[in-house]
Amino acid sequence: MRNLDEILAFNREFVANQEYEKYQTTKFPDKRLVVLSCMDTRLEELLPKAMNMRNGDIKHVKSAGAIVSHPFGSIMRSIMVAIYELNAEEVMVVGHYDCGMSALDSKRTMAKMTEKGVNAETLSTLQHAGINLNKWLRGFDCVDDSVKSSVETIKNHPLLPPSVAVHGLLIDPVTGKLDVVVNGYDYLEARG
Description:
Strand content: 15-25%
CATH class of the domain at 27-104 and 139-191: Alpha Beta
Radius of gyration: 19 Å
Number of strands: 5
EC number: 4.2.1.1
Keywords: Metal-binding, Zinc
Family: Belongs to the beta-class carbonic anhydrase family.
Structural class: alpha/beta
Protein name: carbonic anhydrase
Order of helices and strands: HEHEHEHHHHEEH
Pfam families: Pro_CA
Strand order of the largest sheet: 2-1-3-4-5
Helix content: 40-55%
Number of helices: 8
Largest sheet: 5 strands, mixed
């Protein structure tokens, strides 16, 4: 059975059996927290369990590597909407050890694009149009530094309220152990 067909068959039973009832909550995060994490499959259930989060506790935003690549991109917009429209009061950037973004090679990725049917001329046209695909597809060398960079982008955003704590953490994708990289409360206290 194809994925979509399997999902829809399951969904019919899910709705018919009213299994949704145990997940009902509001659109406002109970813990007033927005979490930016990596999209790694190992974190899908592990991250909320390791952080003691239930359905409805947080606003969860995901990107490859938990990276905020542009201060006015969709990741930052999602964080701002969570703060201004959905009552989030803190932000957590959660990267993880053994992240695939640390091994991302833009040239290899572009080669895979052409193998899967993207025309080499398209890649060339984009490069000539000023889109730096090497930079856009670049990963990072150090996950700690990547988390710090995303925290800095969020923390220094001109539209972020000065009272919002922005934390940075790393999670072990095997055990769920959390390590603090940036304690946002310390920054707020030092600022006075």
